[in-house]
Amino acid sequence: VGCIFVEMITGVPTFPGVRETYDQLDKIFKILGTPCEEDWEGVSQLPGYKPHKLGFYRGQKLGLSFPRLYDILEGESMASALLQLNPDNRIEAETALKHRYFSNLPKKLYELPDEVSIFSVGCIFVEMITGVPTFPGVRETYDQLDKIFKILGTPCEEDWEGVSQLPGYKPHKLGFYRGQKLGLSFPRLYDILEGESMASALLQLNPDNRIEAETALKHRYFSNLPKKLYELPDEVSIFSV
What we know:
This protein is mostly helical. The protein has helices spanning 2-10, 21-32, 62-65, 75-82, 93-96, 114-130, 141-152, 182-185, 195-202, 213-216.
């Protein structure tokens, strides 16, 4: 998750190893530091730990390697919490959702049903890639909706049956816009393989058309991840793959 987080913000691979396992580890250790018994008890007993093949590096602030992390409030802090080599020091999923990185999100987002939360995930996904708010409404509800509809299109009965019956649907307060490709509004989505496709699947106004969480994890956006990642128990490090 930490690697994906950094890649979505920077638009480049986090640790681009190109030859073999130790080339990959070298890229990781140059940034995070070479682990040793002092900061990770038992690391020297791991099967792949071969000091003669590993350079010794001191860890550094992630923002030095990925300056764009500093463009987003608490971005560097969040990435550092996720990318801890020692699994015991790595932030847990539930704790990560309470990290200061998410402090500006409305508290109501955490109370929404799953099908609405997926839309929120889409907003966060786009924001992490672009570094700017997805739909920056600044005045009131209909200002926010106007920002959304200018990009996704104004919903109508033809493409969302029952939308006109929703309490907040007031045509006289809403402009009519045709939807457009997300990449036209957020060009950086095209910098990442399948980024625009993934964002579009998440940001569907009609909940019936919105991708489900489990299906999203099988989206082509994640196709370059090693298949073994999906088989790992929660407590096992991704660095074991």
